[in-house]
Amino acid sequence: MIPAIRGTHDILPGQVEKWQHVERLARALCERYGYVEIRTPVIEREELFAKGTGESTDIVQKEMYAFTDKGGDRVTLRPEATPSMVRAYVEHSLEQSMAAAKLYALGPMFRYERPQKGRYRQFHQFDVEVFGLNDPAVDAEVIDLAWSLVAGLQIPQAELVMNSVGCATCRPAFQAALLAALGQDLAKLCQDCQRRASINPLRIYDCKVPADQPIIDRLPHSVDYLCGDCATHFSTVQGHLTTWEIPWRISHRLVRGLDYYTRTTFEVLGQTLGAQNALLGGGRYDGLVKTLGGPDRTGIGFAAGLERLVLALPESLVVPVLAPAFVVAIGEDGRAEGLRLLRELRRAGVPAQMEFEARGLRAQMKRADRAAARATLLVGGDELARGEVTLRDMRTGDQRGVPRADVVRETAALVDARSIS
Ligand code: HAM
Hints:
Blueprint: H1 16-33, E1 36-37, E2 43-45, H2 46-52, H3 58-63, E3 65-68, E4 74-77, H4 82-91, H5 94-97, E5 101-110, E6 122-131, H6 136-152, E7 159-164, H7 171-182, H8 191-199, H9 213-217, H10 228-243, E8 249-250, E9 262-269, E10 278-284, H11 288-291, E11 299-305, H12 306-312, E12 320-321, E13 325-329, H13 331-347, E14 352-354, H14 361-370, E15 375-379, H15 381-386, E16 388-393, E17 399-403, H16 407-415, E18 419-420
Parallel strand pairs: 1-5, 7-8, 13-14, 13-15
Antiparallel strand pairs: 2-4, 3-4, 5-6, 6-11, 7-9, 9-10, 10-11, 12-18, 15-16, 16-17
Helix pairs in contact: 1-6, 1-12, 6-10
The structure holds histidyl-adenosine monophosphate.
């Protein structure tokens, strides 16, 4: 046997229904909020992420599946979607063709991290991005979409946390205050923090090393250093969330692990996930489109990890599926009629199956049971003689003869009741 690569997973029948449930809601919400799908390649030039995600990030420093291809180009499997979305926006001049570029994508991402619960090397994101809209109501809309996804999935005890990391105008003063407050303590922090201090000091707030925490807890808060515009923007975002009755908490340490963020940052945390507790994260990135060679357009978005959403679904989740109908045919004539009926059911939109190999009544009924059929349709000699089909409700055990002409309609009515997967 050749096993799957560490940190990658097959999503098997039995699990995949939960994925489809999550993806269905994600797509439905995007449609409701006016976001359109975009699909970009999983492989990109390495420099897109070095420039986009940022040189100081763990992603670019340690986690990329980057290699030289046979043509000698440096390429990488995408570790996140945002730089790819920006590239596509710039490359196709979408700012000219779309009045408001509100986009979403679903697909696999790749990071060479140490696998653990909720953290994988191939994982999947539902990613939402908005370009060229600066109003705080857009921040609130994006957060609302994220929150509605988690709420719609009935994920218990989820918590929305927010912060503002300021902009190019106010960030330097905050960074200076941060380094001043660190002072002599900088030498006591871990190696990663020392490196961060020289490249992007804000990232010190991301540190998880226990010994560093007392020092980091004493550091200043970015919200106290916001310029007037950033402060107004952030308080307006909060005002909208209040209006929409979305609860949140400010987390001064929420600077996020990527370099491009400006102003609003946010995450939704789940309580059942252990160490990898971020169900989704995002924020504004007002300079990224320009950095990647595009016009001076703002950006905001988030990405949710599908594995984490699936893990956090409530145990009691009932995934709505259409229960299938099962055709049971006896004898050669019954079988010929059964096959005709099978196709009629399917053409009428009723999910229907038939057992092709087992011919005996008991064997076929057993298969119908195993398929969790809601209805079986029995066609044998007696039924053929009467011009009927015996329709059996597998849940109640009731059965009756239904005229052949009515059986598709009656079956449709019976199985349309949604059932438990
Ligand atoms: P991120 O925080 O790196 O942000 O990832 C977003 C989400 O992807 C996380 O909250 C988590 O649910 C999931 N995730 C990340 N890494 C892994 C992993 N190794 N295994 C499983 N799930 C994982 C971004 O990627 C940004 N592009 C989000 C964004 C969009 N910001 C603005 N627009």
